[in-house]
Design brief:
- By secondary structure, the chain is of the alpha/beta class.
- It has 17 helices and 20 strands.
- The chain has helices at 8-14, 58-78, 81-97, 99-110, 114-134, 173-185, 198-210, 226-229, 231-234, 247-258, 282-294, 311-325, 346-361, 396-399, 415-423, 438-447, 480-485, and strands at 26-28, 31-33, 38-43, 48-54, 142-144, 151-158, 161-165, 188-192, 218-220, 238-244, 263-267, 272-276, 304-310, 365-368, 386-389, 406-412, 430-434, 452-455, 474-475, 488-495.
- The protein has a seven-stranded mixed sheet, sandwiched between helices.
- One 2-acetamido-2-deoxy-beta-D-glucopyranose binds at residues 419-420, 423-424, 447, 449.
């Protein structure tokens, strides 16, 4: 992309097979509504305004929540699990049929490459198909009773209206991972999409309604007004809040939600360790680091944030990683050669720069990257993928999530030291390590304080696998059979005097 090209995204929007999937409106009480107040959404590779999206108010949230309550009562009582399963399957089919359009919209607002966006849409759809299958499997139990002539059984019932607050790094997948299980068990949802990436959310909602979901069961309210969105956490009608975002905001929202004892799922910040032991297959480790550090330009909560390499293999690992990083082609996400898009906003770029400057000032070495790539729009939110060596625990990168394409390499001597450094953080989402020793693999997998561990792989997220953190990385699990449990409550039914 040449810097002189203005608004490359205008042409991209013309390529949509279904232009009606590019929606700036909110979806409230079964209607697409366009209020007069809007906020701008930026296209990250040029920094230009992509469009103006509905800026919903607290009153709008109140209306939506009331409508979702009505929707929930009808939907939960009038559909069978089998019907909800079929509905989700239809939604899955529509998402896959419109995969290219959704991916294009996703690139335009998020910046990631088209290949990554198509991958994300398929990943997002995989949650819909997974939970369409799980919808029919919300089995209860029959429990042998301690009392004579008595039967105890459990029913799994939908929790009710769910408030869903999603992040911009996976504009499609973070929505489906939350709402597919909610809809599977019979809940209704009120979604506050991220203000950076509301368009992907709107496309998904439109397709859900097309699939036959009763319109008031799903509500979508973009807003720039954080206070208005907290209605989701304070309204007594809402029974469950699921949030993905920073630990700071997650704690704030949890406190609000506890005011009315809502069920909560919080998928919060990470500071993932990535450990390379001397007995590792180094090429595999480099591949793993590329996947989990540079995917989505380093903007995922399971990205390796701290890379610990055993001293004897540090030189080899660093050289091989640098060689791979230098092959990355930074640019506009819709250009075919691009393998690394811009960051989502200017703040993201500033944070990476700050982490690099701090590390260099404290003695780290810049192995590659560091600046802004040459052949991109200077108004875009670009930064070169970077590798630092000689990193120590007093540097900002050790304790603060970079959320950008920066790989800081620490060295260690012993397994104990590596585990202790890895665990030395208040976060506990993902952790990765590479070793060919089976004993060590089991030992370290068990010792790492995180909710997700990747052993000899950098790829750990899938619909069938429970996703979530420990420590300040949050509570609850998404995906898998455990992800369904977040959206139902267990009722114990005791039937006595069965002999009477
Ligand atoms: C969005 O609406 C809120 C009121 O709900 C207002 O305070 C804020 O300034 C608006 N933002 C924009 C960008 O218009
Ligand atoms: C259940 O009730 C019947 C009839 O009253 C009685 O004979 C039986 O012992 C009871 N069962 C148990 C496990 O106490
Ligand atoms: C993780 O490391 C910390 C710091 O060394 C240590 O206190 C903790 O016991 C370790 N956790 C496990 C499960 O080994």
């Amino acid at each position: 992309m040449s810097p002189s090209v203005s608004s490359p995204f205008v042409g991209a929007l013309k390529t949509l097979k279904r232009p009606d999937l590019f929606i700036a409106d909110a979806f409230v009480a079964g209607q697409w509504v366009s209020p007069t107040s809007t906020f701008p959404v930026y296209e990250p590779s040029t920094g230009q305004v992509l469009g103006s999206v509905a800026n919903m108010t607290r009153d709008d949230f109140v209306t939506a929540i009331k409508s979702a309550d009505k929707g929930y009562r009808a939907y939960s009582t009038s559909t069978t699990a089998h019907e909800r399963s079929a509905l989700l399957r239809k939604w899955y089919d529509l998402i896959m049929q419109n995969k290219e359009d959704i991916a294009t919209i996703l690139v335009l607002e998020n910046g990631k490459t088209y290949a990554e966006a198509v991958g994300e849409v398929a990943y997002a759809a995989s949650f819909v198909s997974w939970f369409s299958e799980e919808a029919s499997r919300a089995y209860g139990d029959v429990i042998p009773s301690s009392m004579p002539n008595t039967t105890v059984m459990t029913m799994k019932q939908p929790v009710g209206v769910c408030g869903i607050i999603t992040p911009w790094n996976f504009p499609a997948a973070m929505i489906t991972r939350k709402i597919a299980p909610a809809l599977a068990v019979g809940c209704s949802v009120v979604i506050k999409p991220p203000s950076e990436t509301p368009y992907t959310a709107a496309a998904l909602v439109k397709l859900a309604v097309e699939a036959g979901l009763p319109a008031d069961v799903i509500q979508l309210l973009p807003t720039k007004d954080r206070e208005a969105a907290t209605e989701i956490c304070t309204s007594p009608i809402v029974k469950k809040v699921s949030f993905t975002g920073s630990t700071k905001v997650g704690i704030h929202l949890s406190k609000l939600a506890m005011g009315t004892m809502k069920k909560v799922s919080m998928e919060l910040g990470g500071n993932a360790p990535f450990i390379v032991f001397e007995d590792a297959n180094i090429d595999l480790a480099v591949q793993g680091a590329m996947v989990c550090k540079f995917r989505c330009s380093g903007q995922t909560c399971v990205c390796a944030n701290r890379i610990f390499v055993q001293k004897s293999v540090a030189k080899e690992f660093t050289a091989k990683l640098v060689a791979e990083v230098e092959k990355l082609k930074v640019g506009y996400g819709l250009d075919k050669e691009t393998t690394q898009g811009p960051l989502v906003n200017r703040n993201g770029v500033e944070k990476v720069k700050q982490h690099i400057e701090d590390a260099l000032a404290k003695g780290a070495r810049l192995e590659t990257g560091g600046g802004v790539p040459k052949d991109v729009d200077p108004s875009g939110f670009f930064i070169l993928p970077s590798v630092l060596s000689g990193v120590t625990t007093d540097m900002m990168v050790a304790s603060d999530e970079t959320f950008g394409p920066l790989a800081p390499i620490f060295e260690f001597e012993t397994e104990e030291e590596a585990i202790s450094m890895a665990n030395n953080t208040e976060f506990g989402l993902a952790g990765y390590f590479f070793s060919t020793n089976i004993g060590r693999c089991l030992r370290v997998a068990s010792a790492l304080e995180c909710g997700l561990v990747g052993v000899n792989t950098g790829k750990i997220s899938a619909a069938e696998s429970p996703f979530g953190g420990v420590k300040q990385s949050g509570v609850g699990r998404e995906g898998s059979m455990y992800g369904l449990a977040e959206y139902y409550v267990i009722k114990a039914v005791t039937i006595g005097n069965t002999n009477a």
